Amino acid sequence: MAWDEWERLKDQAAEQHSTRMRLNHVPPEPSVSTQGDLRVDQQDLAAVGDAAFRLHRDVDRFSDHARVASQKAASGLTSEGYALGGALNHVAARWVDQVQSLLDATAHISNHLDYSRGAHAGDEVFVAGTLSSISTLDSGFDERTAR
After folding, report:
1. Distance from CA of residue 4 to its chain's centroid?
2. Closest listed residue to residue 110, CA positions, set 52, 30, 55, 61
3. Among candidates 50, 40, 46, which has minimal Cα distance to 121?
């Protein structure tokens, strides 16, 4: 490479990297919706909320069988003089506490997803209204500057 060619390439590179402003961005993907990045699929939320509700219902219904059987066995062992009866009764009491924690958690999930569905639907209406107001305002400015 000759010196003149080197100088010419340096000048071209300097012109390309001048101090002018360049905004970096990610080009939109063709498969991405033009509605925006945030999306809540109501069917998915409903499915998770429904699964949490069914789990809550089933745990509530079936967990009591274990509690009743454990307490009955604890009572029988205690009446026969076994110390294990008291320990089993303690386990049954802890079982009730743990089941209640699980029931509270599944109810919270179900209720929160129901709330989220409504909140996101309301947010969607608000955002759409705000954007339509902005486009109306923009068109008013466009009409005014066109005169």
Report:
1. 61
2. 52
3. 40
Nearest to 96 by CA among 114, 70, 117: 70
Give this prediction's pTM: 0.48
Q: What is the pLDDT along the chain (147 residues), one digit of tens a residue?
A: 688 888 888 888 777 765 555 556 666 666 555 555 556 677 877 788 888 888 889 998 888 888 899 999 999 999 999 999 999 999 999 998 999 998 998 888 877 877 777 777 777 777 777 766 666 666 666 666 655
CA angle 42, 44, 46 (to 5 degrees): 65
Q: How far apart are CA 83 and CA 120, in angstroms?
A: 56
- In whole angstroms, give the CA distance from residue 20 to residue 23: 10
Sign of CA dihedral 113, 115, 120, 121: positive
Q: Check the CA dihedral 98-99-102-103 and report its sign.
A: negative
Helix count (H) and strand count (E) of the chain? 3, 0
